[in-house]
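Changelog excerpt

This revision adds worked examples to the README so contributors can see how folded entries look when concatenated. The first example is reproduced verbatim below.
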Amino acid sequence: MGKRNRQRRNEKRRKRERQGRQRHATEAGNGSRRDHAFGGDGFTVDASGVPLVVAAAVEALTEGDTLGFDHVLDMLTAGPPAPGGRRLVDDEAFRQVVAAVQRAGPRGWSPPELIHVVRRRYGSRQVRIAVDALAAAATRSGADIDIERQEQLDELGARAWWPAGESYVEARADRDGASRRKTLGAVLEVISVLHRLPKIPDLRELSGPGPSRSRSHDDERMLAKIRALLAKAESTTFPDEAEALVAKAQELMTRHAVEIPDLDDGSDDRREGVRARRLLVDDPYADAKAVLVHVIASANRCRGVWSSDFGFMTLFGFDRALDMVELLFTSLLVQASQALTREGRSEPAARRRAFRRSFFMGYANRIATRLDEAAQATVADLDVESDGRLLPVLARRDAEVDAACARAFPDTAPMSVRTSDERGWWAGVVAGELASLSVHAEVDEPDASTPIRSSV
């Protein structure tokens, strides 16, 4: 194509975009914020209308109106003609993102969960802005923050680093080496994600009656020992050693999770209550990884409900067992990723999404068998040691966990995650075999799908 032809095509494209912007300005429709917020070429409102224009940009994002959003973002980047117009836009955009964070807390969302949903939708730029909004919200609340929430903010690195009295948008843009337009657009994108979040149950409300168990010195020592075993399993290059380490870790987990004092417990007031936690599962292949969470939870006498829209599993169980699920999921996920990386070096097909999704499904299927065998063998030994008193206690605890899960999620349905790559499945089965109990055990034929409980 010649230079003149390219120029003519580019001019036609720009003309169509201008016409589209004008059409959006006059036909945005039936009382939307955009009907009143902007005209064809710039601000048609004074500085007092800036909140409306910011809301119009968020509305365009929410409705998937890319052209409308780009138009309003251009206007916001330029700012109203009044002195200090850009600063008014920056302050209003940041005020709205902080307000969105503040609204999310009472609706059941913790700081890590907010960051998780932003990361699933966008990238690191938007995540940094969401973390900064959390820091600003904590500073402006004026109320004492409970210890757990403060620990979550500290782990996220949430702190108000930008100079007081200056524009956050400008400071963020300078820090990232990005344009003001790009940074302002990212702020609006975070607002649009947080605006769409529904109310979710408070984990404290989901938990059953009874006291929460505080970790003792013995608990911490046992957890440290289990972490050390899993760390060795992740780092070793010898499959036999990895399987022995994970098997030993699961044995310790099962023994540690059984509440031996319950065998002599004569008072319901002393019993630990069922607890609920949310385990965040990252993309890619979050649904296949959720199956891995499910099988680990089942082996440790916990129950889970998968929320696919937000990428988290709500787990029900007793504190020790929930600790074990989180530890083992992290370790086995690391081992699966390492095995998949090794597979990719020798098998070009391993780079395909279908192969990788099938790999995680085969891996979870084999892990389920191995963990169940390890847990059942350990429980059988413990029941003998307790003169047959253990199994009734476990049956009672299982019933309590099931009841707590059913109360919180009365309307759940099985979810099937289908696989489409047989080679990926079998590669995952082999990796699951090497990561757990025995490299010599017979493997089963793959199922077409593996059901797990899912919220609807």
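The second example, added in the same revision:
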Amino acid sequence: MIESNSQNENNKKEPILLKDEMATEKHIHHYPKKRSHVGPVILILLGVILLLSNLGIDFNWNILWPSIIIIIGLILLIGRDTVGGWVIAVLIIAIAGGLIYTLSTTDWGKDIGINFGDFRFDFSFDKIDVKTKQINIEQNDYPDAKKINLSVDLGIGTYTLSNNDDDKNIFWSESAYNYSNLEPILNQSYEDNILNLQFTTIEDRSFNLFGYTDLKADYNLKLGQSDIITDFDLNIGTGTAIIDLNNQNYSKLDTHIGTGNITVNLAGTNESVSMIKFDVGTGKLNFNGLGSANTDELLGEFGTGTVTLNFDGEYSLKKMQAEIDGGTGKLIITIPKKIGFKIIPSVGTGSISINGKKINKDDDFISDNYEKAQNLIDFKLEIGTGSIEIAIPE
């Protein structure tokens, strides 16, 4: 019986495949499906264009856009072996090129764009001859105003903001621009003796897909009553701004920068400032005369940009608290020798130095004159892979 079972098991053989079946099985291969690179390439191209434009790099868009269309068309042709595929690709390039040309050069495309929430992509150049515009608010319009909330929101261009005591005007501006969507407007409201002003452009959050050639966007703003307490909310995207608040009576100063560059000059003694705040993306911020601000609190954040803080000025406040959080950028701080200061650092792989000498990034640092100085600054500084450079001039 045992021998019989063994023979039965040996007789169980694999099924015999016919010659054609063996050939078929032998030549079956599973190849991964080819993925189209069109989508990623389009996203990369758009991303590069937006980034370079935000960095202020000017292009000849009449040449760039057709080139992009040709590149995309060539990518579409990859893997097309048929004559029909070539014909379809050529038709797509021709239709897309003609449509974009029509949108950008005719009145039909003047107001056509795509909205993404509060942001807008425009298809039209809409370039005009340089125009100038003045906006002013006379003191007689709001004779009982006790406070001003001023918001400045400009995506591109250059602007200056200063105070200039004027018996006639509370606010005055003069602008020059050569794109219609960069025309300035001033929104205003008044309630409980508080004047709310928002200076912006007709389309303050628009991006022209064809770029701005020979851009002209200059805005000059002045406050006429420096004794009226003012709260500032200043926003700039890719442009440049110079803010002079010498002897201006203000309570809050909030500054926002994308890839732009802002210089803020503070001079003269001010007793009313409760907070100064800033956030910087990849741009640059330069604060001068922070000692004159006499603020209780300085708060700031920055990414890959550069922030320079100069704490000179006419101090009247005993102590200031400064809390700043940075990423991969650079923070430069200048502290007068007479000021006592303490630093509580939190540094990742970055560095912190005083007068060029690196200090232990894990330990608190207290200046030698901290106990005796009349004016003190307590810093809480955080940085990732960036650097903190502190200078104490002799």
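Reviewer comment on example two: The longest strand covers residues 127-138. The chain has a mean pLDDT of 77.
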